Amino acid sequence: MASVVHxxxxxxxxxxxxxxxxxxxxxxxxxxxxxxxxxxxxxxxxIVDRASQGIRPTGLRFPVSLGTRSCDFAVFQSExxxxxxxxxxxxxxxxxxxxxxxxxxxxxxxxxxxxxxxAAAALRLVRExxxxxDVIHGHDWQAGLVPAFNRLNPVGSAGVVxxxxxxAYKGLFDSGAVSEVGLPWDMFRPGQGGEYWGRLSFLKTGLxxxxxxxxxxxxxxxxxxxxxxxxxxxxILRDLGDRxxxxxxxxxxxxxxxxxxxxxxxxxxRANLSGKSVCRSHLLETFGLSEPNGPLFGIVGxxxxxxxxxxxxxxxxxxxxxxxxxxxxxxxxxxxxxSIRDAAGRHPxxxxxxxxxxxxxxxxxxxxxxxFLMPSRFEPCGxxxxxxxxxxxxxxxxxxxxxxxxxxxxxxxxxxxTGLKFRSFESSELACAxxxxxxLWDDRDAMARAVQCAMxxxxxxxxxxxxxxxxxQRVAR
Length: 477
Ligand code: ADP
Ligand code: GLC
Known about the structure:
By secondary structure, the protein is of the alpha/beta class.
Protein backbone atom coordinates (compact mmCIF):
# COMPACT_ATOMS: atom_id res chain seq x y z
CA MET A 1 0.00 0.00 0.00
CA ALA A 2 1.26 3.44 -0.93
CA SER A 3 1.40 6.74 0.90
CA VAL A 4 0.07 9.36 -1.52
CA VAL A 5 -0.35 13.14 -1.43
CA HIS A 6 -2.84 14.59 -3.93
CA UNK A 7 -2.27 18.22 -4.89
CA UNK A 8 -5.36 19.71 -6.46
CA UNK A 9 -6.98 23.12 -6.84
CA UNK A 10 -10.60 22.05 -6.22
CA UNK A 11 -12.23 19.39 -4.07
CA UNK A 12 -15.90 18.60 -3.45
CA UNK A 13 -17.56 19.63 -1.10
CA UNK A 14 -15.26 22.59 -0.44
CA UNK A 15 -14.75 24.12 -3.88
CA UNK A 16 -15.81 23.21 -7.40
CA UNK A 17 -15.94 24.53 -10.94
CA UNK A 18 -16.16 21.17 -12.73
CA UNK A 19 -15.39 17.46 -12.73
CA UNK A 20 -11.88 17.92 -11.30
CA UNK A 21 -13.47 18.66 -7.92
CA UNK A 22 -15.52 15.45 -8.02
CA UNK A 23 -12.47 13.37 -8.96
CA UNK A 24 -10.27 15.08 -6.35
CA UNK A 25 -12.54 13.80 -3.59
CA UNK A 26 -13.73 10.48 -4.99
CA UNK A 27 -10.36 9.09 -6.13
CA UNK A 28 -8.54 9.78 -2.83
CA UNK A 29 -11.51 8.32 -0.94
CA UNK A 30 -11.50 5.16 -3.07
CA UNK A 31 -7.74 4.83 -2.51
CA UNK A 32 -8.26 5.27 1.25
CA UNK A 33 -10.88 2.51 1.19
CA UNK A 34 -8.38 0.22 -0.55
CA UNK A 35 -5.97 0.78 2.34
CA UNK A 36 -3.61 3.40 0.89
CA UNK A 37 -2.53 6.29 3.12
CA UNK A 38 -3.89 9.34 1.32
CA UNK A 39 -3.97 13.05 2.02
CA UNK A 40 -5.26 15.86 -0.20
CA UNK A 41 -3.79 19.37 -0.31
CA UNK A 42 -5.85 22.23 -1.70
CA UNK A 43 -6.06 26.04 -1.41
CA UNK A 44 -8.24 27.54 1.33
CA UNK A 45 -10.37 29.86 -0.81
CA UNK A 46 -12.21 32.50 1.19
CA ILE A 47 -15.52 31.30 -0.37
CA VAL A 48 -15.17 27.92 1.37
CA ASP A 49 -17.72 27.50 4.15
CA ARG A 50 -15.35 26.48 6.93
CA ALA A 51 -17.82 26.07 9.76
CA SER A 52 -20.28 23.80 8.00
CA GLN A 53 -17.51 21.70 6.43
CA GLY A 54 -15.72 20.95 9.70
CA ILE A 55 -12.55 22.78 8.65
CA ARG A 56 -10.38 23.74 11.61
CA PRO A 57 -6.96 25.32 12.13
CA THR A 58 -4.03 22.98 12.75
CA GLY A 59 -1.92 25.72 14.28
CA LEU A 60 0.78 25.08 11.67
CA ARG A 61 2.09 28.16 9.82
CA PHE A 62 5.07 28.65 7.56
CA PRO A 63 6.48 31.18 5.12
CA VAL A 64 7.05 30.31 1.44
CA SER A 65 9.42 32.28 -0.79
CA LEU A 66 9.45 32.35 -4.60
CA GLY A 67 11.50 34.77 -6.69
CA THR A 68 11.48 38.04 -4.79
CA ARG A 69 8.19 37.35 -2.95
CA SER A 70 7.46 35.71 0.36
CA CYS A 71 4.05 34.77 1.82
CA ASP A 72 2.82 33.26 5.05
CA PHE A 73 0.59 30.19 4.88
CA ALA A 74 -1.69 28.85 7.62
CA VAL A 75 -2.78 25.21 7.45
CA PHE A 76 -6.34 24.04 8.10
CA GLN A 77 -7.65 20.48 8.19
CA SER A 78 -10.82 18.50 7.57
CA GLU A 79 -11.73 14.89 6.73
CA UNK A 80 -13.75 13.33 3.92
CA UNK A 81 -16.27 10.60 4.91
CA UNK A 82 -13.92 7.62 4.41
CA UNK A 83 -11.28 9.35 6.50
CA UNK A 84 -9.05 10.98 3.87
CA UNK A 85 -7.42 14.02 5.48
CA UNK A 86 -7.67 17.26 3.51
CA UNK A 87 -5.20 20.07 4.22
CA UNK A 88 -6.36 23.54 3.22
CA UNK A 89 -3.60 26.09 2.60
CA UNK A 90 -4.64 29.58 3.58
CA UNK A 91 -3.03 32.70 2.20
CA UNK A 92 -5.57 35.47 1.64
CA UNK A 93 -3.34 37.38 -0.72
CA UNK A 94 -3.76 34.55 -3.25
CA UNK A 95 -7.00 32.75 -2.42
CA UNK A 96 -9.12 35.39 -0.70
CA UNK A 97 -11.13 36.08 -3.86
CA UNK A 98 -14.74 35.68 -4.99
CA UNK A 99 -13.86 32.96 -7.55
CA UNK A 100 -11.34 30.13 -7.91
CA UNK A 101 -9.59 31.19 -11.12
CA UNK A 102 -11.16 34.37 -12.42
CA UNK A 103 -14.32 36.35 -13.06
CA UNK A 104 -16.47 36.71 -16.19
CA UNK A 105 -14.06 39.44 -17.26
CA UNK A 106 -11.23 36.91 -17.44
CA UNK A 107 -8.67 34.94 -15.44
CA UNK A 108 -6.99 36.59 -12.47
CA UNK A 109 -3.79 38.16 -13.87
CA UNK A 110 -1.65 36.78 -11.04
CA UNK A 111 -2.72 33.13 -11.45
CA UNK A 112 0.90 32.16 -12.11
CA UNK A 113 1.82 33.40 -8.64
CA UNK A 114 -1.32 31.98 -7.01
CA UNK A 115 -0.64 28.47 -8.24
CA UNK A 116 3.15 28.57 -8.11
CA UNK A 117 2.82 29.43 -4.42
CA UNK A 118 0.23 26.67 -4.09
CA ALA A 119 2.65 24.06 -5.52
CA ALA A 120 5.54 25.28 -3.38
CA ALA A 121 3.40 25.46 -0.23
CA ALA A 122 2.04 21.94 -0.82
CA LEU A 123 5.60 20.55 -0.96
CA ARG A 124 6.57 22.58 2.09
CA LEU A 125 3.59 21.09 3.97
CA VAL A 126 4.70 17.55 3.07
CA ARG A 127 8.08 18.35 4.57
CA GLU A 128 6.70 20.13 7.66
CA UNK A 129 4.42 17.20 8.49
CA UNK A 130 7.13 14.69 7.62
CA UNK A 131 4.61 12.76 5.51
CA UNK A 132 7.29 10.87 3.52
CA UNK A 133 4.94 9.93 0.67
CA ASP A 134 5.80 7.28 -1.91
CA VAL A 135 4.00 9.35 -4.51
CA ILE A 136 2.95 12.96 -4.97
CA HIS A 137 0.04 13.17 -7.40
CA GLY A 138 -0.69 16.56 -9.01
CA HIS A 139 -3.79 17.45 -11.02
CA ASP A 140 -3.95 19.81 -14.00
CA TRP A 141 -1.93 22.96 -14.67
CA GLN A 142 -2.71 24.42 -11.25
CA ALA A 143 -0.42 21.76 -9.74
CA GLY A 144 1.88 21.82 -12.78
CA LEU A 145 4.93 23.20 -10.97
CA VAL A 146 4.93 20.42 -8.36
CA PRO A 147 7.18 18.07 -10.38
CA ALA A 148 9.66 20.85 -11.25
CA PHE A 149 9.85 22.22 -7.69
CA ASN A 150 10.27 18.68 -6.41
CA ARG A 151 13.22 18.15 -8.78
CA LEU A 152 14.84 21.34 -7.52
CA ASN A 153 14.33 20.47 -3.87
CA PRO A 154 13.14 16.86 -3.52
CA VAL A 155 10.77 15.86 -0.75
CA GLY A 156 12.44 12.59 0.17
CA SER A 157 12.30 10.01 -2.58
CA ALA A 158 8.68 10.46 -3.71
CA GLY A 159 7.79 9.72 -7.33
CA VAL A 160 5.58 12.30 -9.02
CA VAL A 161 2.44 11.57 -11.06
CA UNK A 162 0.56 14.22 -13.02
CA UNK A 163 -3.02 13.76 -14.24
CA UNK A 164 -4.25 15.89 -17.12
CA UNK A 165 -8.00 16.38 -16.89
CA UNK A 166 -8.18 18.64 -19.92
CA UNK A 167 -5.44 19.62 -22.37
CA ALA A 168 -7.30 22.77 -23.33
CA TYR A 169 -6.13 24.38 -20.08
CA LYS A 170 -2.40 24.80 -20.38
CA GLY A 171 -1.71 27.40 -17.69
CA LEU A 172 0.03 29.79 -20.12
CA PHE A 173 1.86 32.89 -18.94
CA ASP A 174 4.31 35.36 -20.45
CA SER A 175 7.94 34.35 -20.10
CA GLY A 176 8.46 37.00 -17.41
CA ALA A 177 6.62 34.58 -15.11
CA VAL A 178 9.61 32.21 -15.17
CA SER A 179 11.69 34.28 -12.75
CA GLU A 180 8.64 35.51 -10.82
CA VAL A 181 7.73 31.94 -9.89
CA GLY A 182 11.34 31.06 -9.14
CA LEU A 183 11.97 28.57 -11.95
CA PRO A 184 15.54 28.39 -13.21
CA TRP A 185 15.81 29.33 -16.91
CA ASP A 186 17.13 25.91 -17.86
CA MET A 187 13.74 24.44 -16.92
CA PHE A 188 12.16 26.81 -19.46
CA ARG A 189 13.66 25.20 -22.53
CA PRO A 190 11.73 24.10 -25.60
CA GLY A 191 11.34 20.33 -25.86
CA GLN A 192 11.97 18.90 -22.40
CA GLY A 193 11.17 22.12 -20.51
CA GLY A 194 8.21 24.35 -19.72
CA GLU A 195 8.50 26.60 -22.78
CA TYR A 196 5.46 26.62 -25.09
CA TRP A 197 5.67 28.92 -28.13
CA GLY A 198 7.66 31.50 -26.21
CA ARG A 199 5.46 31.36 -23.11
CA LEU A 200 5.60 29.40 -19.86
CA SER A 201 3.07 26.55 -19.67
CA PHE A 202 2.48 25.20 -16.18
CA LEU A 203 0.86 22.12 -17.72
CA LYS A 204 3.81 21.33 -20.01
CA THR A 205 6.21 21.91 -17.09
CA GLY A 206 4.19 19.29 -15.20
CA LEU A 207 4.24 16.81 -18.07
CA UNK A 208 7.96 16.95 -18.73
CA UNK A 209 9.15 16.77 -15.13
CA UNK A 210 6.74 14.10 -13.83
CA UNK A 211 7.68 10.44 -13.53
CA UNK A 212 4.35 9.35 -15.00
CA UNK A 213 1.42 11.12 -16.62
CA UNK A 214 -2.16 9.96 -16.85
CA UNK A 215 -5.33 11.27 -18.38
CA UNK A 216 -8.90 10.40 -17.54
CA UNK A 217 -10.02 7.89 -20.18
CA UNK A 218 -8.30 5.41 -22.52
CA UNK A 219 -9.87 6.87 -25.68
CA UNK A 220 -8.81 10.44 -24.79
CA UNK A 221 -5.33 9.06 -24.03
CA UNK A 222 -5.07 7.80 -27.62
CA UNK A 223 -6.75 10.88 -29.17
CA UNK A 224 -4.25 13.27 -27.56
CA UNK A 225 -1.32 11.54 -29.25
CA UNK A 226 -2.53 13.01 -32.56
CA UNK A 227 -2.26 16.65 -33.69
CA UNK A 228 -5.97 17.46 -33.32
CA UNK A 229 -6.64 15.94 -29.89
CA UNK A 230 -3.17 16.83 -28.61
CA UNK A 231 -3.84 20.57 -28.87
CA UNK A 232 -0.14 21.31 -29.21
CA UNK A 233 0.99 18.82 -26.54
CA UNK A 234 0.87 15.65 -28.67
CA UNK A 235 4.64 15.63 -29.29
CA ILE A 236 5.38 15.87 -25.57
CA LEU A 237 2.87 13.13 -24.78
CA ARG A 238 4.26 10.84 -27.52
CA ASP A 239 7.75 11.37 -26.10
CA LEU A 240 6.51 10.04 -22.74
CA GLY A 241 5.99 6.60 -24.30
CA ASP A 242 4.79 4.11 -21.72
CA ARG A 243 5.02 6.71 -18.96
CA UNK A 244 1.67 8.04 -20.31
CA UNK A 245 -1.64 6.18 -19.92
CA UNK A 246 -5.40 6.68 -19.65
CA UNK A 247 -7.38 5.58 -16.57
CA UNK A 248 -11.14 6.02 -16.73
CA UNK A 249 -12.77 8.20 -14.06
CA UNK A 250 -15.45 6.68 -11.89
CA UNK A 251 -18.61 7.98 -10.29
CA UNK A 252 -19.18 8.62 -6.61
CA UNK A 253 -22.46 6.75 -6.16
CA UNK A 254 -22.57 7.99 -2.57
CA UNK A 255 -23.41 11.40 -4.04
CA UNK A 256 -24.97 10.42 -7.38
CA UNK A 257 -27.58 7.70 -6.91
CA UNK A 258 -31.33 8.33 -7.14
CA UNK A 259 -32.14 5.85 -4.37
CA UNK A 260 -30.33 7.97 -1.74
CA UNK A 261 -30.17 11.41 -3.37
CA UNK A 262 -31.46 13.93 -0.83
CA UNK A 263 -31.61 16.73 -3.43
CA UNK A 264 -34.59 15.01 -5.12
CA UNK A 265 -38.29 15.50 -4.31
CA UNK A 266 -38.70 11.69 -4.57
CA UNK A 267 -36.18 8.86 -4.61
CA UNK A 268 -36.30 5.81 -6.86
CA UNK A 269 -34.40 2.77 -8.07
CA ARG A 270 -34.49 0.24 -10.92
CA ALA A 271 -37.29 -1.77 -9.38
CA ASN A 272 -39.60 1.20 -8.91
CA LEU A 273 -39.28 4.19 -11.16
CA SER A 274 -42.35 6.06 -9.96
CA GLY A 275 -40.10 8.59 -8.15
CA LYS A 276 -38.53 9.46 -11.51
CA SER A 277 -41.92 10.68 -12.79
CA VAL A 278 -42.26 12.83 -9.68
CA CYS A 279 -38.81 14.33 -10.39
CA ARG A 280 -39.79 14.93 -14.03
CA SER A 281 -42.96 16.82 -13.07
CA HIS A 282 -41.03 18.79 -10.47
CA LEU A 283 -38.37 19.66 -13.04
CA LEU A 284 -40.94 20.89 -15.59
CA GLU A 285 -42.59 22.95 -12.88
CA THR A 286 -39.27 24.40 -11.69
CA PHE A 287 -38.60 25.68 -15.21
CA GLY A 288 -42.22 26.74 -15.79
CA LEU A 289 -42.69 24.33 -18.72
CA SER A 290 -45.85 22.43 -19.59
CA GLU A 291 -45.87 18.68 -20.30
CA PRO A 292 -44.30 18.16 -23.76
CA ASN A 293 -45.64 15.66 -26.34
CA GLY A 294 -42.18 14.17 -26.61
CA PRO A 295 -39.11 13.58 -24.44
CA LEU A 296 -37.58 16.03 -21.99
CA PHE A 297 -33.90 16.69 -22.72
CA GLY A 298 -31.55 18.00 -20.04
CA ILE A 299 -28.19 19.77 -20.04
CA VAL A 300 -25.87 20.53 -17.12
CA GLY A 301 -22.41 21.84 -17.83
CA UNK A 302 -19.87 24.56 -18.08
CA UNK A 303 -20.86 26.79 -21.00
CA UNK A 304 -17.61 26.62 -22.94
CA UNK A 305 -16.82 25.81 -26.59
CA UNK A 306 -15.62 22.30 -25.59
CA UNK A 307 -19.14 21.19 -24.68
CA UNK A 308 -20.67 21.68 -28.16
CA UNK A 309 -23.76 23.54 -26.95
CA UNK A 310 -23.65 25.72 -30.07
CA UNK A 311 -24.77 22.57 -31.89
CA UNK A 312 -27.69 22.19 -29.51
CA UNK A 313 -28.70 25.77 -30.38
CA UNK A 314 -28.49 24.80 -34.06
CA UNK A 315 -30.71 21.72 -33.53
CA UNK A 316 -33.19 23.32 -31.16
CA UNK A 317 -35.87 23.95 -33.81
CA UNK A 318 -35.78 20.22 -34.74
CA UNK A 319 -35.86 19.17 -31.10
CA UNK A 320 -38.93 21.27 -30.39
CA UNK A 321 -40.60 20.38 -33.73
CA UNK A 322 -40.44 16.71 -32.78
CA UNK A 323 -42.41 17.46 -29.60
CA UNK A 324 -39.47 17.65 -27.21
CA UNK A 325 -38.62 20.14 -24.49
CA UNK A 326 -35.23 21.17 -23.11
CA UNK A 327 -33.88 22.38 -19.77
CA UNK A 328 -30.41 23.89 -19.51
CA UNK A 329 -28.30 24.60 -16.43
CA UNK A 330 -24.91 26.11 -17.07
CA UNK A 331 -22.55 28.93 -16.40
CA UNK A 332 -19.48 30.24 -18.14
CA UNK A 333 -18.86 31.86 -21.50
CA UNK A 334 -21.24 34.73 -22.29
CA UNK A 335 -21.13 34.04 -26.05
CA UNK A 336 -22.29 30.42 -25.52
CA UNK A 337 -25.01 31.69 -23.17
CA UNK A 338 -26.19 34.19 -25.80
CA SER A 339 -26.41 31.59 -28.57
CA ILE A 340 -28.57 29.32 -26.41
CA ARG A 341 -30.70 32.25 -25.24
CA ASP A 342 -31.30 33.39 -28.83
CA ALA A 343 -32.37 29.94 -30.00
CA ALA A 344 -34.56 29.43 -26.93
CA GLY A 345 -36.28 32.76 -27.51
CA ARG A 346 -38.03 31.19 -30.52
CA HIS A 347 -39.65 28.51 -28.34
CA PRO A 348 -41.36 30.02 -25.31
CA UNK A 349 -42.70 27.41 -22.91
CA UNK A 350 -40.59 24.62 -24.45
CA UNK A 351 -37.09 25.55 -23.32
CA UNK A 352 -36.07 26.41 -19.76
CA UNK A 353 -32.78 28.15 -19.01
CA UNK A 354 -30.80 28.78 -15.81
CA UNK A 355 -27.45 30.45 -16.28
CA UNK A 356 -26.00 29.83 -12.86
CA UNK A 357 -24.27 27.17 -10.78
CA UNK A 358 -26.78 25.13 -8.76
CA UNK A 359 -25.84 21.78 -7.22
CA UNK A 360 -29.40 20.74 -6.31
CA UNK A 361 -30.80 21.62 -9.71
CA UNK A 362 -28.01 19.61 -11.37
CA UNK A 363 -29.25 16.54 -9.47
CA UNK A 364 -32.89 17.25 -10.36
CA UNK A 365 -32.03 17.53 -14.08
CA UNK A 366 -30.13 14.22 -13.97
CA UNK A 367 -33.19 12.59 -12.41
CA UNK A 368 -36.10 14.33 -14.11
CA UNK A 369 -34.97 14.34 -17.75
CA UNK A 370 -35.57 11.50 -20.22
CA UNK A 371 -32.33 12.20 -22.07
CA PHE A 372 -29.11 13.93 -21.08
CA LEU A 373 -27.43 15.87 -23.91
CA MET A 374 -23.63 15.93 -24.03
CA PRO A 375 -22.54 16.70 -27.61
CA SER A 376 -18.98 17.69 -26.61
CA ARG A 377 -16.45 18.52 -29.34
CA PHE A 378 -13.95 16.64 -27.17
CA GLU A 379 -14.38 15.20 -23.68
CA PRO A 380 -11.45 13.86 -21.64
CA CYS A 381 -13.87 11.76 -19.57
CA GLY A 382 -17.09 13.50 -18.65
CA UNK A 383 -18.95 12.63 -15.48
CA UNK A 384 -22.48 13.79 -16.16
CA UNK A 385 -23.16 11.07 -18.74
CA UNK A 386 -22.03 8.49 -16.17
CA UNK A 387 -24.25 10.02 -13.49
CA UNK A 388 -27.22 10.26 -15.87
CA UNK A 389 -27.14 6.52 -16.61
CA UNK A 390 -27.52 5.74 -12.92
CA UNK A 391 -30.57 8.04 -12.87
CA UNK A 392 -32.14 6.18 -15.82
CA UNK A 393 -31.64 9.22 -18.03
CA UNK A 394 -30.18 8.09 -21.34
CA UNK A 395 -27.15 10.08 -22.49
CA UNK A 396 -26.95 11.40 -26.06
CA UNK A 397 -23.26 11.94 -26.74
CA UNK A 398 -20.66 12.67 -29.39
CA UNK A 399 -18.52 9.53 -29.56
CA UNK A 400 -15.30 11.12 -28.32
CA UNK A 401 -12.94 10.60 -25.35
CA UNK A 402 -14.61 9.28 -22.23
CA UNK A 403 -18.05 9.58 -23.83
CA UNK A 404 -17.00 6.86 -26.29
CA UNK A 405 -15.68 4.71 -23.41
CA UNK A 406 -18.73 4.92 -21.17
CA UNK A 407 -21.84 4.91 -23.41
CA UNK A 408 -23.09 2.04 -25.62
CA UNK A 409 -25.38 3.01 -28.49
CA UNK A 410 -28.81 1.34 -28.51
CA UNK A 411 -28.55 0.55 -32.22
CA UNK A 412 -24.93 -0.63 -32.14
CA UNK A 413 -25.59 -2.88 -29.11
CA UNK A 414 -29.33 -3.60 -29.37
CA UNK A 415 -29.54 -5.86 -26.33
CA UNK A 416 -27.28 -3.74 -24.11
CA UNK A 417 -27.46 -0.13 -25.28
CA THR A 418 -27.25 2.56 -22.61
CA GLY A 419 -27.61 5.72 -24.71
CA LEU A 420 -27.25 7.25 -28.17
CA LYS A 421 -24.05 8.27 -29.92
CA PHE A 422 -23.24 10.28 -33.01
CA ARG A 423 -19.84 9.86 -34.58
CA SER A 424 -19.20 12.94 -36.63
CA PHE A 425 -19.34 16.34 -34.98
CA GLU A 426 -22.02 17.93 -37.16
CA SER A 427 -25.41 19.36 -36.25
CA SER A 428 -27.12 17.09 -38.81
CA GLU A 429 -25.70 14.11 -36.87
CA LEU A 430 -26.92 15.46 -33.55
CA ALA A 431 -30.33 16.15 -35.11
CA CYS A 432 -30.42 12.54 -36.31
CA ALA A 433 -29.60 11.29 -32.78
CA UNK A 434 -32.41 13.47 -31.39
CA UNK A 435 -34.84 11.93 -33.95
CA UNK A 436 -33.70 8.43 -32.90
CA UNK A 437 -34.24 9.44 -29.28
CA UNK A 438 -37.80 10.51 -30.07
CA UNK A 439 -38.49 7.18 -31.85
CA LEU A 440 -37.09 5.22 -28.90
CA TRP A 441 -39.20 7.24 -26.47
CA ASP A 442 -42.32 6.24 -28.49
CA ASP A 443 -41.37 2.55 -28.20
CA ARG A 444 -42.10 2.24 -24.48
CA ASP A 445 -40.73 -1.32 -24.14
CA ALA A 446 -37.44 -0.60 -25.87
CA MET A 447 -37.06 2.61 -23.86
CA ALA A 448 -37.71 0.78 -20.59
CA ARG A 449 -35.10 -1.86 -21.51
CA ALA A 450 -32.48 0.80 -22.26
CA VAL A 451 -33.26 2.61 -19.01
CA GLN A 452 -32.81 -0.62 -17.03
CA CYS A 453 -29.56 -1.35 -18.81
CA ALA A 454 -28.23 2.19 -18.18
CA MET A 455 -29.12 2.03 -14.48
CA UNK A 456 -27.27 -1.26 -14.14
CA UNK A 457 -23.94 0.18 -15.32
CA UNK A 458 -21.31 0.25 -12.62
CA UNK A 459 -18.61 2.89 -12.91
CA UNK A 460 -17.71 2.92 -9.24
CA UNK A 461 -14.22 4.18 -8.45
CA UNK A 462 -12.78 1.02 -6.98
CA UNK A 463 -11.60 -0.46 -10.29
CA UNK A 464 -9.93 2.78 -11.42
CA UNK A 465 -8.41 3.34 -7.98
CA UNK A 466 -6.77 -0.11 -8.25
CA UNK A 467 -5.21 0.94 -11.56
CA UNK A 468 -3.83 4.08 -9.89
CA UNK A 469 -2.54 1.86 -7.09
CA UNK A 470 -0.61 -0.24 -9.64
CA UNK A 471 0.78 2.91 -11.21
CA UNK A 472 1.92 4.19 -7.79
CA GLN A 473 3.79 0.92 -7.28
CA ARG A 474 5.67 1.43 -10.54
CA VAL A 475 6.48 5.07 -9.77
CA ALA A 476 7.45 4.81 -6.08
CA ARG A 477 11.20 4.70 -5.62
P1 ADP B 1 -16.12 19.27 -16.79
O1 ADP B 1 -15.20 18.86 -15.70
O2 ADP B 1 -15.45 19.41 -18.11
O3 ADP B 1 -16.92 20.47 -16.43
P2 ADP B 1 -17.57 16.81 -16.13
O4 ADP B 1 -18.73 16.18 -16.78
O5 ADP B 1 -16.40 15.97 -15.84
O6 ADP B 1 -17.19 18.08 -17.00
O7 ADP B 1 -17.99 17.39 -14.71
C1 ADP B 1 -18.86 18.45 -14.53
C2 ADP B 1 -19.29 18.51 -13.08
O8 ADP B 1 -19.68 19.84 -12.77
C3 ADP B 1 -20.49 17.64 -12.79
O9 ADP B 1 -20.46 17.22 -11.45
C4 ADP B 1 -21.65 18.63 -13.03
O10 ADP B 1 -22.83 18.24 -12.39
C5 ADP B 1 -21.07 19.90 -12.47
N1 ADP B 1 -21.61 21.13 -13.07
C6 ADP B 1 -21.24 21.72 -14.22
N2 ADP B 1 -21.93 22.86 -14.42
C7 ADP B 1 -22.77 22.99 -13.36
C8 ADP B 1 -23.77 23.97 -12.96
N3 ADP B 1 -24.02 25.04 -13.72
N4 ADP B 1 -24.42 23.77 -11.82
C9 ADP B 1 -24.18 22.68 -11.05
N5 ADP B 1 -23.27 21.74 -11.36
C10 ADP B 1 -22.56 21.88 -12.49
C1 GLC C 1 -12.14 17.87 -17.02
C2 GLC C 1 -12.76 17.30 -18.28
C3 GLC C 1 -13.82 16.26 -18.03
C4 GLC C 1 -13.41 15.31 -16.91
C5 GLC C 1 -13.04 16.09 -15.68
C6 GLC C 1 -12.62 15.21 -14.51
O1 GLC C 1 -12.79 19.00 -16.56
O2 GLC C 1 -13.27 18.33 -19.12
O3 GLC C 1 -14.06 15.54 -19.23
O4 GLC C 1 -14.46 14.41 -16.62
O5 GLC C 1 -11.97 16.94 -15.95
O6 GLC C 1 -11.54 14.37 -14.86
